[in-house]
Amino acid sequence: MINLTNNTVATISDCDEEPIHIPGSIQPHGYLIGVNPANGRICYGSENLEKLFSLPLQHILGQSIKDFFPQESSEIETYFQEKSSFQNKRFLVTHSYQTFQLIAHQSGNVRILEIEPIADILPETYSIQLTDLLSLIQSPGNLTELCQTVANYVRQTLGFDRSMIYRFDQEDFTGEVLAESRLETLESFLGLRYPASDIPPQARELYLKNPLRAIDDTAYEPVAIYGLPAAWDDAPAQLDLSHAQLRSVSPIHVQYLKNMGVGASFSISIIKDHRLWGLIACHHSSAKHLTLKQRDSAQLLGFLLSSQIDLHERNQAVREVEIVDKSLNHLIPFFTQEAIRVRDIITNPELLRIAQAQGVAILIDGQIFTNGNVPATESIKELTNFLLEHTGYEPFFSKNIATLFPPAEAYAHLASGIMYQPLGYLSEDCILWFRPGLSQTITWAGRPTAADQLLEARQKLSPRKSFEAWQEVVKNTSSAWAAVHVEATTYFASVFQKQLRLLHLQQDADKQRALNERMQAATEELENIHWISMHDLKEPLRKIQVLASRVLSQETQTLTDTLVDSINRMQNSAQRMQKLLDDISAYSYISTGHEPSSVINSNSLLSEIIQEKQEEFTAAGATIHMDNLPGINGIPFQIRQLFLNLLTNSFKFRKPDTDLHVAIWASEPSEEVAKELGAIEGSYYSIFIQDNGIGFEKDYRDIIFRLFKRLNTETSGTGIGLAICRKVMMNHQGYIWVNSEPNEGSQFELIFPLSRIIDFGSTPLHSTHGTQKDPDY
């Protein structure tokens, strides 16, 4: 046999770590058996079973549970055949002419059976009656009065020296005695606050799992539990007794009760919304045992009080909601107006009332609007910056912001409590409500941070001994923010945010409308300028050119050489201006892509252009190599202008004393272009035009596509040709790209969307990206 008594608690330096759910022992007023549900054999047992069954424990372990309760064997067998897990399954069993109450529950893969003798029948005065419970439900008054009524009733019916209603703070889990009924000879604990360490987290967790906790005698000697080694394959090494009523209590807690002069205790959990709201705690100066009936009725009372507390808090919440709704109803109409006037909203007293605050600030577009008691503007800005980083644009509230943001200590008298509601993501816009820090006097049951207790806790695991009332003054902590105020401010902020968004959209629409009007006016003005340039300016230019030609042809012999030279330069300037007007006219004609598209045979179109320019290309010793190209679904005259400009560009910027070579082919976009455009593979197709001309630096490859930009002023031109090419590609939802090096030639890439490319059958896709043609082939 293995003794399961958990002796590790003596070495633990922090009671928060004490494994109180696996003590390995029970209280002595009952017996415990652990059964393998697969075969009904006893594999765990409390040491005092030897007294009950008059057998050594080693002879009990390993036997069938039915052997010890033959009269109830059928009922027990039925229970073990059930596959469902049961909590608090009960039987009456007999052994040696004595009746016992057997309470069974599932713990992991073990069935735990607790056995208690049936006690003598107690007087009705020591039992909670259903009629009394009904009268408690109907008792009027507030929550404190209800708790006091229950405390009085519990002490009267269960016969304890003291009964208390103990409430946990849901933020820091300190406890407060809210109501108390006691013998007059006892010191009062009413109103005392207890540190959270008195009931550590694992103890609170057990109160949630098992709502009853009875200690019949704080002077009891724990009864060890023994188990068979490796009883079955997955048998637990320790028994989880979280749901066991006989579970042995932490020696720390027992000593704690003894230090208070308590001989027996009984606790009933008050559970609300699946959280431990508090306890009905009973103390007695001597040992005291409650029957199962008394414990059941007490548990029913705990359920009743929980429901009544919930009802009282809901009623209080409803009253607060009504008040807040009334304030919201006065605020929301401000958002139905055509324009939001923040100053009207910030000065409305209802804005403070929805949060029960004493100050409020609204931050919009860098401006701060305030009302009531608020920190300085710079302090609000610093606090807002901290909250943006700390909360990630999520709502936030605190009773003491200085604990997170120490600079707030300087204005804690105005704004210790803050409610933060952002008005959008990636924006500083927000609303802040402020509550002042209050000075509160808290009466503790003993000094919670006394140095001697801390030293003793470090040396060994020991509960505190002092319970004398000790007062602490807590400053710079505001009243807690109620859920109704959090919900109301969240709702108000959401409505405000929507209206701000609508306002911004309206402002953007107004700006867009004004911009469109200005653009329309500019467009009309440009059309007038275009008309003037295309018609009114061309006529004087033609007259200048005609007159200059006439003078040169008829009066040359009578003019001086200087005057003839001036007239020639005047005529050349007029011709350049004529060329510029023609190019501007060409650019304006392709400024939109609304003209109808048709299928263009790229091979035929380029052949026509080459034929037209044959004399110029032949004079330059030009050789043009053209692969079979795909068709293009485009605007014919624009595509023609595109190819013409690029071929003319190659001719214009050829190397002197070097024959011009031009290569034209089609392929998938080059890797560089695909990466730059983020193009999905297979969504574009390119036509390449490469020459062996003078080239240019890569830094200029964006500049050359701008209007009137020329890199080489020694050649003729207006700087519009490549701008036209880019405009044509834009009109066809495509792009133009160029790679070039000085003296290495240029490669222009026309990237068309795949939807614009026709007849791939005659133009197979190349397997390589941007095939580089040799310019000296």
UniProtKB/TrEMBL annotation:
According to its UniProt entry, the protein's GO biological process terms are: detection of visible light; regulation of DNA-templated transcription
Q: Which SUPFAM superfamilies match?
A: ATPase domain of HSP90 chaperone/DNA topoisomerase II/histidine kinase, GAF domain-like, Homodimeric domain of signal transducing histidine kinase, PYP-like sensor domain (PAS domain)
Q: Name one GO molecular function term.
A: phosphorelay sensor kinase activity
Q: Which part of the chain is the Histidine kinase domain?
A: 532-756
What's in the keyword line of the UniProt record?
A: Chromophore, Kinase, Phosphoprotein, Photoreceptor protein, Receptor, Sensory transduction, Transferase
State the top-level EC class: transferase
The EC code for this enzyme is: 2.7.13.3
**Entry's InterPro entries?**
GAF, GAF-like_dom_sf, HATPase_C_sf, HATPase_dom, His_kinase_dom, HisK_dim/P_dom, HisK_dim/P_sf, PAS-like_dom_sf
Q: Which reaction does it catalyse?
A: ATP + protein L-histidine = ADP + protein N-phospho-L-histidine
Q: Identify the residues that the record assigns to the Phytochrome chromophore attachment site domain, covering every copy.
A: 142-307
Sequence similarity: In the N-terminal section; belongs to the phytochrome family.
Q: What is this protein called?
A: histidine kinase
